[in-house]
Give the backbone structure.
Amino acid sequence: MIPGALREAVARDGEPIVYVARERLLETMKWLKETPGQDFDYLVDVTAVEFRDKERPLEVVYFLRSLERKADLRVKVELNPSEELAVDSVWGLWHGADWLEREVFDMFGITFRGHPDLRRILMWETYAEGYPLRKNFPLRGRFSRAEQVRQALNANPEAHYSMEELSIAEASDDLPDDMRERLKRGERGVIPEPPHE
Amino acid sequence: MSKRVVSPRTIELELATPGIDAQGHATRVPLTADRAPAEPGLDEEHMLVNIGPQHPATHGVLRLVVELDGETVVRCIPHLGYLHSGFEKLGEYRHYNQIIPLTDRTDYLSPMSNNIGFALAAEKLMGIQITPRCTVLRVIACEMSRIISHMVWLGTTSIDLGAFTPFLWAFQQREKIYDLQEMWTGARLTTSLTRVGGLLADIPDGFVEKLRDFTKTFPKTLAEIDRVLTRNAVWAGRTQGVGTLTADEATNYSLSGPMLRASGVAYDVRKDKPYLGYETYDFDVVVGEHGDVYDRYLVRLEECHQSNRILEQALDRLPDGPINVDDPRVILPSKTRAMTDMEAMIFHFKQVMEGVKAPVGEAYVGIENPKGELGNYLVSDGTAKPVRWRIRPPSFINLAALPKMAEGHLLSDLIAINASVDIVMGEVDR
Amino acid sequence: MKRVGEVKSSNYLLTKFENLVDWAVNSSRANSLWPMPFGTACCAIEFMATAASRYDFARFGMERQAFSPRQADVLICAGRLPFKLAPVIRRIYDQMPQPKWVISMGACASTGGVFDNYAMVQGIDTIVPVDVYVPGCPPRPEGLLYGILLLHKKIKGESLFDAVKRREEQPLDDKGLRLAPETIDEISEPFGNSVHQFRSA
């Protein structure tokens, strides 16, 4: 019944789960939000799950709710970690997805195509250790404690304003030279590649 | 059964408070290019100002980068993560009962509420039904948490807007609840009240009487605060028309709790998806009209009254009986039995060494936290430690609407709006 | 016990100039410590409760909470310190003028607390020098008051005329660290139950 649905399931709390193919996600979400009778106007949460069993794919989970009908639905998209971890952003449908998707990107490394400002949100922009909630990321991080302290103290939050903020400051004349250079080059500072497993 | 808060809007018309026109709409500085040119001699350029992360008025370690045109906020960009503690990662390495102390530390202003939210999700996952006495005690704990959280909000917001005395009154009421929490759990703040299938301990003697005394004296403090703030010209002038969000915007930004209800959407998890028997209690859902800071204040103040009402009803109907479910695989046996009975000792050993195993599957339970809808999403693969523990943080999602609310207001309004979102950075950053 | 002076008769007291100066300076410093509340998490709430009417640390001289580090004496780090906040506390500590002291309030600020993971600094003493550690999660207001009184005692035991300068600035070295890397690794190692809790399943 739901376009793009691959299969359905039921959670242990009784709520219905729908698995959707990655390519049809945006179309399905639009249908769910705008069709009268579905009316899922409230996005409760967006998150991702990686299982300990390496055979299972990553899941991006969307919790939808219809305030009128008092109904819930869980939509899942499965991503194979051997392929590119990317999915379409639903920011255009629900603005609440803005920071939620940024957090999934920060913690799992899943890119959301079409997101207006996909940056790290909980860790600092030049965080070099990787994506913390992946199962191959150890609990205490990849570097030694001394190295983590050193990287943290050298992170210098002031040197890493976002492009949006730099363009505001550029309107006035006293932008430091290195930031002006960065603005011209269009780069956000040296954002290191996380170590590959 | 929702209750509209009546906000006395006639005040500002008599005093001609700037910021609101005759129809009660906020007058905002329009952001279009064709506004009146700046006065000759003053620069037209915008300033980029950094507020925080260490700042007395940001309610924690929040960093706001604001673009200012004079004193008008053109854009506000929040930066988070300064309190990111890796809760969700840590939860994957702990047994379910070991995660309960972690939940105290996310929203540390209403710790018992967080404990209960997690325990409900774990019990849903494992298919455990808690006892009637435990249900009513958890309702009491939730409402006590709601009161202390709103008291912190009230105290800190009044300090931000210049009124210091309500802070002392509010914190004195908090101390009374802290005494009760300490009687029950042994700790003032990090309560770790629940266990999967039950509670840490039963309420001690004297608890019910002391809580009843509190419910009798608490409305007096609320009346005092109401008298000082609600019809105060300074308070009304600084909060009416400030930070307005319409119902559609609030729904689209996924707000919840008093933020959503102040904008006119009558959504309360206790009424719409009831848990812990809330459908059997008699209370109103407090809904606002205009969605500005003043309405959020009125909604939270009235919610304290409603919490008081629920507490009185819960104390009246508190049944006798055990607080823990009678399942030895989930609840530790008593020490005497564990030391004398072989089977009990084996159950004790298995629970402590291996933890309680949850069946394969997932569960999400959302509760009405004082800040909004707090959800706990647990995914299990059959072991004693969850594969994924996700906290759906109400403050994080509410804060995302801050840039939208702040556009066009003055810098001091930004402080008021930030205070009205009622964030707790432990939950925003987790 | 430092011998401060002798009473020769009821009319005059004989003492050393150093003792007199030290007594005056240390008493004024200790009895009027203005805290810089670097409150991050739950301990900040207990800090606020200590400032409120029931426990009231204004009785001990902390009447004015200095939210600007330039006007503060003691930095009270109340709450956990993630790595993202590390440069911020170092900068705030550097901005405080001498004499300055640091109270590390709570288990997380002292050792990292329950958060032995990728995001948390395992004790602020890897970043700033600490004078008093107040244990607890969170410490009771009485505990924080005891820590403040211990700091008073420490201040009153100092001397302006010490051969070893105790109040020197301690900047970070060229690698950006305050202690040697081996020392940081050693004091950040997991201990107690944490040693067993590294398996995810």
